[in-house]
Design brief:
Blueprint (H helix, E strand, L loop, with lengths): L3 H4 L5 E12 L3 E3 L2 E3 L3 E6 L16 E3 L2 E9 L2 E6 L8 E6 L1 H25 L3 E6 L4 E5 L6 H16 L4 E6 L22 E6 L3 E4 L14 E8 L5 E7 L1 H21 L6 H35 L7 E5 L5 H10 L6 E8 L2 E10 L2 H9 L1
Parallel strand pairs: 16-17
Antiparallel strand pairs: 1-4, 1-8, 2-3, 4-7, 5-6, 5-8, 6-7, 9-10, 10-15, 11-12, 12-13, 14-15, 17-18
The chain binds zinc ion.
């Protein structure tokens, strides 16, 4: 079945009749994260809420104002997950969470464009793709992807976005001779009664059940974030499209502003300043360690010369390191003193080290405790 959202992906409101409403405990899957659910699955005569498919996550929306938290395709039906039941036979007004849907449309159409350019101009076919809560990636069937290819692909995709090339959906039957041109990337098995082909001008034609923009200009911009090794023999190319680019840029600016406040200097100096801080910290740590070793020697001498000789020593110094404690213990070996040393981990107030040393009979009893 072709749903209303697949006929017109820009429809934000729609009315349809409730066909079925059953209780369910099927979990909710949100960008790969699974969570428990108890509620209802509602079937409607038709829907503008997209059920997950083709790599595109499901929509969120409302049925008569009642929240739809998941939509899944089961055979020919779309199941709407709600926390409250809806009466069978009644008409309900549907509303799609447009911000979420349009974001998915930008990422999904962006992926088609990206995959087409990588395959046609760089011989790098896409084997799968992922649309996550923050980032997306295409998985390429190669380990030889370099930064020049990434830059050229990003430039080319953005040039095509500026050309405002129309994106059309063609419907064909399984035996259509034109289908040879299209690929079967990500097409669910239950989508093959009527085949949808998403065409980006003359650049690409791809079978897909997802919702797409109607013109490349609606993508605004595509940003490739770089490559990382994928599964065996594969490379993942991370990307962002449209609003995600501006949102991510804002996040980065906020982070940079916070760093500017902390480092008290402009962003272009951040790297130098952090390097200097790290270097100074290393020197400070080295100095502290030297001073602690001298202090350990001093403590050893003090205890050796104490009159009368103490029976036990207890020591807890905030700045003591395990090396310091060991050095004092070593210096007092053979003094038949019972020693109890404690030290605290930097940044972990409840974690640290306890060191005891002394005559066997004491260690056996107190060590256990
Ligand atoms: Zn697709």
């Amino acid at each position: 079945m072709v749903f209303k959202c697949q006929e017109d992906s820009f429809l934000k409101e729609f009315t349809s009749r409730v066909v079925k409403c059953e209780e369910t405990t099927e979990p909710i899957v949100e960008y790969g994260k699974v969570s428990k659910f108890e509620g209802y699955q509602v079937t409607l005569e038709n829907t503008i809420l997209f059920p997950a498919g083709g790599g595109q996550p499901h929509d969120h929306g409302w049925l008569n104002g009642k929240e739809v938290v998941q939509v899944l395709r089961k055979g020919d039906e779309a199941l709407h997950f709600t926390r409250e039941p809806l009466e069978v036979g009644t008409f309900v007004s549907q509303k799609v969470n447009w911000e979420r849907r349009f974001d998915h449309m930008q990422q999904h159409s962006g992926q088609h464009l990206l995959s087409a350019i990588l395959e046609k101009e760089h011989n790098l076919p896409t084997t799968s793709w992922w649309l996550g809560a923050e980032e997306c990636y295409v998985e390429l069937n190669s380990t030889k992807v370099n930064n020049d290819v990434i830059q050229a692909t990003e430039d080319r995709c953005n040039a095509l976005i500026r050309e405002a090339i129309p994106v059309n959906v063609k419907f064909c039957k399984i035996n259509d001779p034109n289908l040879d041109e299209a690929h079967t990337r990500g097409l669910p098995k239950d989508c093959i009664d009527t085949i949808r082909v998403i065409c980006i001008g003359s650049i690409d034609g791809n079978m897909c059940c997802g919702t797409h923009v109607s013109n490349l200009s609606q993508l605004q911009v595509i940003k490739l974030l770089g490559i990382e090794p994928g599964k065996k023999g594969k490379t993942n190319v991370k990307f962002l499209v449209g609003n995600r680019v501006t949102k991510t840029l804002q996040l980065m600016l906020d982070r940079e502003k916070a760093l500017t406040g902390l480092l008290k200097n402009e962003p272009s100096k951040h790297e130098d300043l952090v390097q200097k801080l790290q270097k100074n910290l290393k020197i400070s740590n080295k100095n502290l360690s030297n001073v602690l070793m001298e202090l350990a020697q001093y403590e050893v001498e003090k205890l050796k010369n104490a009159q009368p000789k103490p029976k036990f020593v207890f020591m807890f110094k905030k700045e003591a390191t395990p090396d310091f404690n060991r050095a004092v213990c070593k210096g007092l070996e053979g003094e038949s003193l019972f020693m109890f040393f404690a030290s605290e981990e930097v940044d972990k107030p409840k974690e640290g080290q306890i060191l005891i040393q002394g005559p066997d009979e004491h260690i056996k009893v107190l060590g256990q405790q």
